[in-house]
Write a structure and sequence with these properties.
Blueprint: H1 11-26, H2 30-42, H3 44-67, H4 69-75, H5 77-99, H6 107-110, H7 114-126, H8 129-138, H9 150-181, H10 187-207
Length: about 210
Amino acid sequence: MLEIAIFLPTAATFLTFAAACLALNFTPGADMMFTIASGVSGGPRAAVAASVGINLGVVVHIILAAIGVAALIQAEPLAYDALRYIGAAYLIWLAIQMWRSSAPDEMKSAAAPLGQVAQRGFVTNVLNPKTALFIFAFLPQFTDPARGAVWGQIVVLGMIFICTGFTVNAVVGGLAGAFTTRLRRASRILNRVSAFVFGGLAARLILD
């Protein structure tokens, strides 16, 4: 029978884990770059929507980590590579869409809905197997079998990780969007910058 007792980390564990999460989230990576690109092309609200979608993807990875599916991906190279290439293909598609985006005068009617931005963030994150493997390797380091079910501890720690990740990405991406709002007349250039970012993320996913 599954244990349902709520795991509460000790103060020392919480502070150490939160500090580690902040340090990791402030390190530029695929999620932050996606949020920045979304903010650049759609403004602060788009950056927040992208961060919401990304962290919904993180929820999926945390659930997978809690039940051990990430270990299966790590043990089966073909599954890892398949997911990696699917994720890269999706990012390339996004890059093409941004490159072909409408001219400034057409942007008002062609702007992507926030729900669509969040969906893109979700799919991008879920299709990145590195996120699953990272969470599977990172979260268990702060668990203690003596304090209860490890899966429950992973879920609680994962929620803390999501809170820090959402805050950092939303703020950084929002600031990027706020600054570029003043440059809306140069939206075609900004969209192509975003396209290069998405293309670079795809290349990084394939080559790493």
